[in-house]
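[Meeting: bench + compute handoff]

Bench side (C.D.) handed over the final construct sequence. Compute side (W.E.) agreed to return the predicted structure before the next meeting so the bench team could plan truncations. Sequence as handed over:
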Amino acid sequence: MKLYGYWRSSASYRVRTALNLKGLSYQYEPVHLVKDGGQQHSEAYRKLNPARLVPTFLDGDVKLNQSLAIIEYLEECYPEKPLLPNDPVDKARVRALSYDLACELQPVTNLRVLQYLTGELNCSDEQRLEWIANWVERSFTAFEQRLTEYAGDYCYGNSVTLADICLIPQVYNAQRFNLNISPYPTLVAVYERLQALDAVQQSRPENQADAQ
């Protein structure tokens, strides 16, 4: 297995965490999203992933992009240490929690969106931070409400699921931008329990070979 990713990419972070939680070995290939004008724009990487995004995942002849699709593939092909419940209703709820973060919050706060704000739209750093804070607050407020219904030790009951994998990078980003997350006590408690897991610690951005 080979994972092309960037140490601080939320989507790469999700896949790293899934691989580590499942105990799967993989080769990591850094793609720096800022250096050299963005290595994702190189001709070699564009051939691998025309969207010029990370992550890209290889498993033998299988080539996949999109972090959630990659994790679903891992779940189907390497079912040990499952990240989704068996019950259809529980599975749908975990997916919904995951999409709340990975499909609603993360896309509007990712690097290329922030670069567009400060580049083409000429927003100030203060305006960029206001943008991030707005979407994090909206998302985390709703997510906190959902957790009061579903959470145990983790986002959904007492087992680590895909929802936890999607939560981790978004809390990391909120902390990186010095946002106040104290209004979300259940979310914070779940995140702190996740940080006690070795697989989660191994996945942290600062523990990657390309961290800068």
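W.E. noted at the follow-up: The mean pLDDT is 97. C.D. will use this when planning the next construct.
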